[in-house]
Design goal:
By secondary structure, the protein is of the alpha/beta class. The strands form two sheets. It has a ten-stranded mixed β-sheet, with helices on both faces. Strands 6-7 form a two-stranded antiparallel ribbon. The chain is globular. The chain has two domains: 189 residues, 3-Layer(aba) Sandwich (Isopropylmalate Dehydrogenase), CATH 3.40.718.10; 131 residues, Isopropylmalate Dehydrogenase, CATH 3.40.718. The structure holds nicotinamide-adenine-dinucleotide. Nicotinamide-adenine-dinucleotide (NAD) binds next to loops.
């Protein structure tokens, strides 16, 4: 039986890594019919919005999507389409695994952690306004409902995947009310999961500990902003954004996408590393219940990394995006 999955190719390097990913997914033998939906810069002029309603309708119908990165103008222009999509579809949990892979240069060899990021509120709620000409305010929103929901998600993920420890990341010493509530909710939920260790750490100390000894950590439970920042940091611990996949999940739908952005300066050059999106494809296959195909694709990625002849620039090689995808597809055909 085939699957129907929404594909948002994205802006900048998005179409190149999407082509690479659909190519290797096809090589697994799993039949996926892609419903291609454009969003972002490309459709802004034509539709008057970077997120036409048909995009969310398609995801609601298919319940699963693969997404390339979408550009957000800095300091002006439209609001982030990525944030809007997560809020519109109530994709409240952003799961960002970071682990060492064979052949990928890194200062560490034993990193295997998952950032679980609350995806719908915090400073990303988009509530900001000017106060006169020379000041601006952004409102940080933390609610009990969303905080308990993401904490429970993190502990359930730990149980489901055999992980042992959840660390709540916060700044409750300064933001006593907002981060204090997030931490209190995590502590309360932790009491229901006696089989999983629980700890908490202030976000600045967490950054230092992660770059000193990342192997100590397992699942990091974060409000939206710290989760965004820490997941790039964690990608850097294991070889960079080129190998960092993610899943956005909620009650009904799941959207898989690389952690990185649209890298506009590299667009159209066939140089970008497709693995972050391909590994998001591995997560998508697992989500569909295609665990064997997911394991085969991941093994093919690791084999190409170990061989080391078809690596992109960020991993010290000279291969192109399509060359790396071809090498992975070839492995799958063996
Ligand atoms: P970026 O992630 O696009 O790029 C940061 C750096 O990492 C650049 O030097 C880039 O060349 C490099 N890089 C990124 N992905 C790579 C890959 N797969 N292989 C090799 N090198 C890679 O971040 P940015 O430049 O800050 O953002 C560009 C745009 O992307 C912005 O408009 C931003 O809002 C958007 N963005 C979107 C998402 C998303 O769609 N989920 C996430 C982050 C940023």
């Amino acid at each position: 039986m085939g699957y129907r999955v929404t594909l948002i190719p994205g802006d900048g390097i998005g179409p190149e890594i999407s082509a690479a990913t659909t190519r290797v997914l096809a090589a697994t033998g799993v039949e996926i019919e892609w419903e291609v939906m454009e969003a972002g810069e490309k459709v802004l002029e034509e539709c008057g919005t970077p997120l036409p309603p048909r995009v969310c309708e398609s995801i609601r119908k298919n319940r699963v999507a693969l997404k390339g990165p979408l550009t957000t103008p800095v300091g002006k222009g439209f609001r982030s389409v990525n944030v809007a999509l997560r809020q519109e579809l109530n994709l409240f949990a952003n799961v960002r695994p970071a682990r060492n892979r064979p052949g990928v240069p890194s200062r560490f060899t034993d990193v295997d952690l998952v950032v679980v990021r609350e995806n719908t509120e915090d400073l990303y709620a988009g509530v900001e306004h000017r106060v006169g000409n020379d000041a601006a305010e952004s409102i940080k929103i933390i609610t009990r409902g969303a905080s308990e929901r993401i904490a429970r998600f993190a502990f359930d993920l730990a149980r489901r995947t055999g992980r042992k420890k959840v660390t709540c990341v916060h700044k409750a010493n300064i933001m006593k009310l907002s981060d204090g509530l997030f931490l209190a909710c995590a502590q309360q939920v932790a009491a229901e999961y006696e089989d999983i260790q629980f700890g908490d750490m202030i976000v600045d100390a967490m950054c230092m500990k992660l770059v000193q000894n990342p192997a100590e950590y397992d699942i990091l439970l974060c409000p939206n902003l710290y989760g965004d920042i820490l997941s790039d940091l964690c990608a850097g611990l294991v070889g960079g954004l080129g190998v960092a996949p993610s899943a956005n999940t909620g009650d009904g739908c799941a959207v898989f996408e690389p952690v990185h952005g649209s890298a506009p300066r590299r667009a159209g050059q066939n140089v970008i590393n497709p693995l972050a999106m391909i590994l998001s494809g591995v997560m998508l296959l697992a989500h569909l219940g295609e665990t064997r195909a997911a394991a085969r694709l991941e093994a093919a990625v690791d084999a190409v990394l170990t061989e080391g002849t078809q690596l992109t620039y960020d991993l010290g090689g000279r291969a192109g995006t399509s060359g790396m995808a071809a090498a992975i597809a070839e492995r799958l055909a063996k």
